[in-house]
Amino acid sequence: MRAFTISVFGFLVIAAISSCFCDGNSSVLCMESERQALLKFRQDLIDYSNRLSSWVEGEDCCKWNGVFCDDLTGHVKELHLGLPDENFDFFSDEFVAYIWSKLGGKINPSLLELKHLSFLDLSNNNFGGIQIPEFIGSLGSLTYLNLSRSGFQGAIPHKIGNLSKLQYLDLGYSNNQQPLETENLQWVSGLSSLKYLDLSTVYLATATDWLQVTSSLPSLVELHLFLCHLNTASFPSSPNFTSLVVLDLSGNEFSSVPTWIYGLHSLVSIDFTGNFFRGPIPDGFQNLSSLKVLDLSYNSINSLTSSSLSRLNNLQVLALRHNYIPGQIPSTIGNLTSLIHIDLAINQIQGIAPTLLENLCNLREMDLSDNEIDQEVSEILQGLSRCSLDKLVSLNMENNSLSGHLIDQLGQFKNLVSLLLWKNSISGPIPFSIGELSSLKSLDVSSNRLNGTLPQSIGQLMSLEILRLEDNLFEGVVSEMHFSNLTRLKILQASKNMLTFKPNPNWIPPFDCEIIELGYWNLGAQFPPWLQFQKNLVAIDTSHAGISNVIPSWFWNLSTQFLEVDLSHNRLVGEISYLFKSNVVDLSFNQFHGPLPQVFPNTKYLSLSENSFSGSLSHFLCNFSIESSFILEIKNNLLSGEIPDCWKYLTSIWVLNLGNNNLTGKIPRSLGSLNLYALNLRNNNLSGEVPATLQNCTSLSLLDLGENHLSGSIPVWLGNKLSRLVVLGLRSNNFHGHIPDQICALSSLQILDLGHNNISGGIPKCFSNSSAMVTKNPSSSFLIQYQFYDREFMESALLVRKGREFEYSTTLKFVTSIDLSSNVLTGEIPRELGSLKGLQSLNLSRNLLTGKIPANIGNMGLLESLDFSMNRLLGEIPPSFANLNFLSYLNLSYNNLIGQIPLSTQLQSFDEFSFIGNHLCGPPITKNCTKKGVTSGGSEGHVGPKVNGLYISIVLGFVMGFWSVVAPLFFMRSWRFSYYNKLEHIGWKIYEFWQRPRRKDCVDSRRLSVLHNKDWVLGLAMNF
User: Fold this and answer.
1) What is the pLDDT of residues 220-253, one digit of tens each?
2) Where does 1-233+246-256 sit in CATH, by number?
3) Would you call 29 exposed, middle or buried from its count of C-beta atoms within 10 A (0-12, 13-18, 19+)?
4) I need a labelling partner for 630 at 20 to 30 A (CA). Which of 4, 65, 157, 750 fits?
């Protein structure tokens, strides 16, 4: 932890900061020899951003950027060529500019000509993995050397140990892939003047002398050895650190706190983050009376004992983030009256002792986020208000189980800058006193149960920069007064509430935001005109906002800096010629029409689904390339023509959804060149066979080609190559042949839909190998959840369950289903299906299955939907049906089942249509059963047969009519063949009629009936 800056280096820090803004300020001309040396040095550098443009022949080098000279002699004494350590958004223009400004190339030995050079900073550049030049060890005047984060690798030259005047050495964070290394630290012993040493991420696993050497440096004040692969081996009994104040040993491999730490009484800051400590905090820390910072985060500490921290009267920072501390925080921590910062985030803390906060009168920052605190939020706020009311600056209790209401006295925390309560169960209104927090910069109460109207006093928070209110139960009208004094507001996120905001059309907001998210607000039919004043907007969400107009021209002018645009679920109209130059664009569920717009290469997520876009895909897809991962959804539009064969230029696409359009032709072979995770071409007019090139998409977790006119057999390679498949949908096509046994090799398969095809043969017995359907807790790790900024994308799929079509997205990974309905499957239902204990839906209806229902069907304890209707099943309903406690849909109609329906609360809850067309009895059917389980024949008390004359007439008429037609066919061969040829012709006409493009789910049952009748008639003709 770099919480302290040693006063000895104050002038160095000031000089480093000044170098970011100023050039050299020498009052005399630099030495000619040194100017030439610098020019040679520049020749070997790569300077893409032209940072060193001022380094020109003939100019005074003391005025060059980054060069500082001695005011009296003109000698170059300092080179400030490092960059500040910034954290820009990865996709932002600032990040690109920052990367572009890094120097690279080589370091020329001409630096040796700078005899008076005392300060050299090359940090945060990119020298591409070269070694640190050995000649740097000959720059004998150096007192400051910073080569951190500049891409050096290999062994550290031991000649650096010759720099006896060196006071500051930073070689940390060198190269992510191949860090710097050294087999020992003997060379460090020559740095007798060293006060600051940072070797973070340098590989020191073999340098067993690291402690002896560093402890022998008489002036060492700060030591940073983060992630150096250090362990507890070779510790001396008492290292001789005489001046050490700051010690950072985080990210190493210590299994316990080294006992020699407790003898370093001058230590002010200790950082042991991310080691392997277990058990409670050791009692030895109480001997470090000067300690102000103790960071033990990311270990396995499991308790806070009463004595371990009791004597740390000067402790100001206590960080125990991400451990395993359960239960309540003991009240003894309240004895640490000097505490300024306490961080106990990401533990298992369930509560705070009521007296804990009463004595922490100096507390400024408290982070209890990501725990299990189940208390009234008012109890904690009231405890803080007793002592630290005028001191508290930051309070973070995000992601807990806090309940209750915010206190009315919230406005008394006058110095509060950050209040973060995201993701709790806090209810009630925001108190009106919130407007008294004049210092508040960040307020996050999102994902709670807050209700009521927003207090207008929020508009008085003049310092507010971040306001997050999304996902609550706020309602009512928001006026211009709610924003009256929010002149510094940069982030406004308040989606998923029931708020209405319709300001005056001429209203000019007092703020200029970067992020505005007002999804689910009622913003009126007009596109919000006040958005045109947001010149720095990078993310906008006005989804579900009731907007029904066109997108105004001024909004397109704002789009050049957008990172995320979500205008979905409105009634926006018109044509779009080009899209926003954004990473995330969602225009789905609107009324846009015309051809698809132009797309920019930087787009990462694009959804144009549920609109009326028409025309071809060729111009849209084949005129641009995608730079990185991409999700493309254009389902439910009016697109036509063939899918273009230009996918080899779009290899970065992860998810492609073109379902529910009018696309024709074959599936292009070049789709196999994509690194797809999900492919959905459902409900188009595609024909031909599934291209074998799709077997190259080995990352596929979802493949849905249903409701097309695809033909051929089901590819064997689906099971051999696509081992990650979770969802396989081939419904309503013209596939024939058998179900290949290789499908059973898909161990992650949770959803299989082969319904409404012409598949024949038996049901594979090997389905019992599908481990995802055998387990009772399916949850596939292959159904990836994609994250773009704050936006989540989940794969979705349409499934037919319980006789209806459902779309699953967020719960898709928990769904299991097999649908083989409306095929020509024969044979018995394999008893092996009974082992699919995790299956929720099974549909085998409208086939030619025979035999009995397997007796172990009741083992499928999670079944919610079961359909065996319209087959030729025999025998009784197995008694194990009574075990299907979750069954909510059952259809056994039109089989040859007999006997009594098993008695169970679940089966008797269905109506008789679930059993119609069988020979069953007992509830819920009205027919009663005899003792042997057959239906009783007549009324009670009636004896003997009862003959109805009408029935006799019907039988005689049928016999006479039947033989008048059949007899000529039987004895006259020419009549027979003519009759059956004509009948076959009519059957094929009917078949072709039902094969016309349409929603096949509505007609396939009738089509199958025609096929079955045709097969019976042709069979009869052959027998004759």
Assistant:
1) 999 999 999 998 765 656 788 889 999 999 999 9
2) 3.80.10.10
3) middle
4) 750
